[in-house]
Amino acid sequence: MINYRTEDVARKVRQLAPSGVDSIIEMDLSRNAAYYPDILKPYASCAVYGMSAQQSRLPSLALMSLNIRLSFAFIYELTAAERAPGLAEIARLLTDDSLIHTVAQQLPLDRIVEAHEMVENGTLQGNLVLNIA
Fold it and tell me: In this structure, are strands 69-72 and 103-108 parallel, antiparallel, or unpaired?
């Protein structure tokens, strides 16, 4: 895990992948696009499904020079047929116990306000799980 608040993201990625990465599944294009020229290999791809602002600034010339492919998906509009392969893969990974979860905090449902505030404050490194049973 890379803490973008305290670590040099590009340097950390390059430590893990010295020649850069082939692909990114991006949950916040607005925050992370500036890193792309330093972390993506030529001809890499980036699948974007989220952003924290209505518009994102892209290092366009650098991305074009590296032949980077960006694709966007509005996941709320996926059809059942489009979701099926992803759900099957997740089910397989869960069955194989192959998914690595970083759970930072677990709280009971009656502390949902506190949980929401913790997520908004960005103080957690990992997921917050609400126990509903």
Answer: unpaired
pLDDT at 70: 97
Neighbour-count burial for 39-66, b at 16+ CB within 10 Å, e otherwise: bbeeebbbebbebeeeebebbeeebeeb
Q: Give the predicted TM-score (pTM) of the model.
A: 0.71
Q: Is 118 helix (H, G, I), strand (E, B) or coil?
A: helix
Helix ranges (H only) for 18-79 are: 29-32, 36-39, 60-65
Q: What is the pLDDT of residues 59-84, one digit of tens each?
A: 999 999 999 999 999 988 999 999 99
Amino acid at 37: P
Cα dihedral sign, 16-89-101-128: positive
Task: Indicate whether 16 pLDDT > 80.
Answer: yes
